[in-house]
Design brief:
A hairpin with a 2-residue loop joins strand 1 and strand 2. By secondary structure, the chain is α+β, with helices and mostly antiparallel strands. The protein has 20 helices and twelve strands.
């Protein structure tokens, strides 16, 4: 009986495998024409990724060096095709044939549901509702809050002990959070400071990202029993409850405020827009609230901290930025959008920070219709998971001399002209590009202007061999450490 059962199971498995191969014969045919590492039955190349998640980009870079800028690997039955050619990347991300997120984004769903970041059938409709809150006119209306919060941040940095180093991110994230709460979330200052479990949310966000990325990159965590036995499910449940409590409080406060008055169109936050649209369930509003909260305040804080850290370690660039800033903006008063556009040296440091610390290390999309790359010589089959290695593209020595060094001069006009314009895609491209690029740029640059007005930044450590942490986005593993002293006799934030 046991022999019969075993034989039956093996036969069933073999027939299922043959049926799968028959159903996916076109995919297998096209995949066979691509270079890539040898794959095992069932597991594919999953064993090649059994290491610390932070090493995944090095592994992919090794594959690129061995197999070229288009290659394939299998994760179980899932075909992944990596494309690193800049021209192909632009064409793919701009195509309506590649307009859905890849399967890796499914690991975000327990935390934020389907939507703008995680994809699914409703991402486009949800994005359309809130797009007006991110346009140039709305961002200009948010400018007074950016200035007020940035000035308070500058005062705090100005008061630091000049002999002691500190991680500037810990200060910056508090004020990007306040800025986001009072603009995109549409909250009053008082409500923003009293949100339920907000401090806890700021404290554990990085750990939550790490858990998600760990599950994305460790195939054995996809097995529910293993995930539970290792205590990961308990961690996930804690984060999900935290998100629910935090976003419920934001939505509750906004519903209460809307009973009194409706904000003007050009100053309306995303929560107001979702509530007033009537198109989302309460849970969907909470999920999108969390999505746009964390992708705004946390990402902006990382990049702003990176700019500040680079300026501290590059005194000649700090002097260039400061002098230009004084000429354009002056030592006091609010910073306007028009003034920010004139700060060319600051823009170069900002772009170098975006290159060095990618907002998204990897982008994954699902191919919904066959599409070709490399001048039509390679066809990507339907169902393929397209992988765009943004971090690796931004470190490609063909486009970036000495790519591991911090060099803002890469973005001098004469250097930009020499480089393929598609080699720099910090905000992605196409219909699924970064919704908050205008918002984030204005917020980050305003912060840097105010910080430089109040404080002279000094290095702590070195920029050589910066250790990176990969947890969806790329960040500085050891913190954004600097020293700061009061500039021009400013004491306690006042001159």
């Amino acid at each position: 009986m046991l022999w019969f059962t075993t034989t039956l199971v093996i036969a069933a498995g073999f027939l299922s495998w043959q049926y799968w191969r028959w159903r996916h014969r076109r995919m297998l045919e096209l995949a066979a024409k691509l270079p890539g590492p040898p794959a095992l039955p069932i597991l594919g190349n999953a064993l090649s990724f059994m290491f610390n998640p932070g090493e995944i980009l090095n592994k992919i870079n090794g594959f690129i060096e061995k197999y070229g800028e288009v290659f394939r690997f299998w994760l179980g039955p899932e075909l992944n095709i990596v494309v690193k050619n800049p021209t192909d990347i632009r064409a793919l991300l701009s195509s309506n044939k590649v307009n859905q997120k890849g399967p890796l984004y499914e690991f975000l769903v327990p935390f934020i549901g389907y939507g703008i970041l995680s994809g699914g059938p409703i991402w486009r409709a949800h994005r359309k509702i809130v797009t007006p809150s991110y346009n140039k006119k709305s961002v200009e209306n948010f400018s007074p809050i950016f200035n007020k919060e940035a000035e308070q941040l500058a005062r705090i940095i100005c008061q630091k002990d000049p002999k002691k180093s500190f991680d500037v991110y810990k200060d910056v994230v508090k004020f990007t959070t306040q800025s986001v709460n009072q603009t995109l979330m549409g909250l009053s200052k008082e409500d923003s400071q009293n949100l339920y479990r907000m401090d806890e949310m700021l404290r554990v966000t990085q750990d939550m990202y790490s858990l998600i990325f760990e599950k994305m990159t460790k195939w054995w965590l996809h097995v529910p029993l293993i995930y539970w036995l290792l205590g990961k499910k308990k961690q996930q449940d804690y984060y999900v409850k935290l998100i629910d409590d935090f976003t419920s409080d934001i939505v509750r406060r906004k519903r209460k405020a809307l009973e009194v008055s409706e904000p003007k169109e050009d100053c309306m936050g995303i929560v107001d827009r979702y509530i007033l649209s009537g198109e989302l369930s309460e849970k969907e509003i909470q999920w999108e609230t969390m999505t746009l909260f964390t992708t705004s305040q946390e990402a902006a804080a990382k990049i702003a901290s990176g700019v500040i850290m680079f300026l501290a370690h590059l005194p000649e660039w700090q002097e260039k930025v400061y002098k230009e800033m004084m000429d354009v903006v002056g030592p006091d008063g609010p910073v306007t959008s028009e003034q920010l556009k004139q700060l060319e040296y600051l823009d170069m440091v900002y772009k170098e920070t975006l290159r060095y610390f990618s907002i998204a290390a990897l982008i994954q999309r699902t191919v919904e219709e066959e599409i070709t790359v490399k001048d039509g010589s390679i066809t990507l089959p339907v169902g393929t998971s397209l992988v765009i290695p943004i971090h690796n593209l931004h470190r490609d020595p063909r486009f970036w001399e000495d790519p591991h060094r911090v060099m803002p001069e890469r973005f001098l006009p004469e250097n930009v002209k020499k480089r393929d314009p598609n080699a720099f895609v910090p905000f992605s491209l196409g219909p699924m590009d970064c919704l908050g690029r205008v918002y984030a740029t204005a917020l980050i640059k305003t912060i840097v202007v105010w910080v430089l007005r109040y404080a002279k930044l000094e290095p702590a450590g070195t920029l050589d061999n910066i250790k990176l942490n990969i947890a969806i986005s790329v960040s500085c593993a050891d913190g954004y450490n600097i020293k700061a002293r009061s500039r021009n006799g400013r004491i306690n934030g006042f001159s």
